[in-house]
Specification:
By secondary structure, the chain is an all-alpha fold. The protein has two domains: 160 residues, Tetracycline Repressor, domain 2 (Orthogonal Bundle), CATH 1.10.357; 128 residues. It is built from 14 helices and two strands, in the order ααααααααββαααααα. Strand 1 and strand 2 form a beta hairpin. It is globular. One of its GO terms (cellular component) is plasma membrane. GO terms for molecular function: transferase activity, transferring alkyl or aryl (other than methyl) groups. Its main location: membrane. This is UbiA prenyltransferase.
């Protein structure tokens, strides 16, 4: 549309739009999709620490659920934000006219419904319940709560629920669910993921303001809190030396990954530095997840961390924020 505006009432134009795969990939933030399965793998690793098991097909299915819900979240985010993006980010798929706002709402809603159905199919009622709660948190953030303290917590809660999603398919003993069996040290992990992502979301919400060092400090504090919980987990679980070393290595990599852009954003808090810091913190969650997962075994940590490779590769072609 000329001038980069968004006409949400032009039904004929909506029907004529034919988005390309590249347009859809940009809409769903395709690099970020690879940050969702690591949460699920982390949840399965926590269940393993608690003595439970997760069948590979079930885990794979739940990973797909997490990807579908993340894609739904980014799609609905842009659909709700289309009028704002028309002024501030006219190059995005909806305000640029490459995807209609109506189609984005329908696509996001459809992805959410499919995700809950798949969760029920692979993990039963517990999986569907967590997936539905996650979808609800996403809609609340994208719609009514964005930009508020409750909104930041809603986004963080979505990520914490994504970790718990990985627990829902695990069973212990005679097939008993383990979602309510996690002790305080294990439950602290999804809780601190909530805090970390809420802090990063707070920084992201102030990306275009400039001059806001406080938001960068909040994000850095979230990262430090996550590292403190990792130390607590390692002390409580006492994994073998190799697993401990792997967890520490992933933690160091996480500090390096997010520390450099956060330092740059603090030194000069403008959109050109804060934006990359937000992207680094989002992708850095994979390394943080891997550090926690390594406490359950070296394989858990490596599997979790491996998702960073496609995420970083695709981030060279598509925006993360």
């Amino acid at each position: 549309m000329a001038g980069g505006g968004v006409d949400c009432s032009d039904d004929a134009r909506d029907r004529s739009l034919r988005p390309t795969l590249a347009d859809i990939a940009e809409l769903v933030r395709v690099p970020n999709l690879f940050t969702a399965p690591p949460d699920v793998v982390l949840g399965a690793a926590l269940a393993a620490i608690a003595g439970a098991e997760l069948a590979i097909p079930t885990g794979a299915g739940l990973a797909v659920v997490s990807v579908l819900l993340y894609a739904a979240g980014t799609t609905l985010n842009d659909a709700f934000d289309a009028p704002i993006d028309a002024r501030e980010r006219p190059e995005r798929p909806i305000p640029s006219g490459r995807i209609s706002r109506r189609s984005a709402f329908g696509f996001g809603a459809g992805l959410s419904v499919v995700a809950v159905a798949v969760a029920f199919g692979v993990a039963g009622g517990a999986g569907a319940l967590v997936a539905a709660a996650l979808a609800g948190a996403i809609v609340l953030y994208d719609g009514a709560l964005k930009g508020t303290v409750a909104g930041f917590l809603a986004m963080g809660t979505a990520r914490g629920l994504n970790v718990l999603l990985g627990v829902t398919g695990a069973t212990a003993g005679a097939g008993d669910p383990v979602l309510t069996e996690l002790g305080p040290a294990l439950l602290a992990v999804p809780a601190v993921v909530v805090a970390y992502i809420a802090a990063v979301t707070f920084m992201a919400a102030r990306e275009i303001e400039g001059g806001n060092r406080g938001a960068v400090v909040v994000a850095a504090a979230g990262a430090l809190a996550a590292l403190a919980v990792l130390v607590r987990l390692l002390v409580a679980v006492r994994p073998p030396p190799l697993e401990t070393a792997a967890a520490v290595a992933f933690a160091v990599a996480f500090c390096w990954w997010v520390g450099r852009p956060l330092r740059a954003a603090y030194a000069d808090p403008v959109p050109a530095t804060v934006g990359p810091a937000v992207g680094a913190c989002v992708l850095g969650l994979v390394l943080l997840d891997a550090a926690f997962a390594a406490a359950a075994g070296l394989g858990w940590g490596l599997l979790t961390g491996a998702f960073l490779v496609p995420a970083v590769g695709l981030a060279r072609a598509f925006d993360v924020t």
